UniProtKB/TrEMBL annotation:
CDD domains (alphabetical): HMA (cd00371)
Stored InterPro entries: HMA_dom (IPR006121), HMA_dom_sf (IPR036163)
GO molecular function annotations of the record: metal ion binding
Keywords for the protein's UniProt record, in alphabetical order: Metal-binding
Organism, as annotated: Halobacterium salinarum (Halobacterium halobium)
Descriptive protein name: Copper chaperone CopZ
Domain called HMA: residue spans: 1-63
SUPFAM superfamilies on file: HMA, heavy metal-associated domain
Superkingdom per UniProt: Archaea
Keyword Metal-binding applies: yes
Length: 64
């Protein structure tokens, strides 16, 4: 499992938006977002750059 810090999530809707963006991505088999801890965890073979781009396209920012 890979974990990233994602800013700008503030509610369950935000969590679902990010989770949906990642599970729609080829190579991601599971994803969970948590607005309380500002984290996104995912499993799979997707390239990290593609995951970051999907989160960005959903309107959220991956912290460095």
């Amino acid at each position: 499992m890979t974990e990233l810090t994602v800013t700008d999530m503030s509610c369950a809707h935000c969590e679902q938006t990010v989770t949906d963006a990642l599970t729609d991505l080829d190579g991601v088999t599971d994803a969970t977002a948590d607005a309380d801890t500002d984290t996104v965890s995912y499993e799979g073979t997707a390239d990290t750059d593609a995951v970051v781009a999907a989160i960005d396209d959903a309107g959220y920012t991956v912290a460095p």
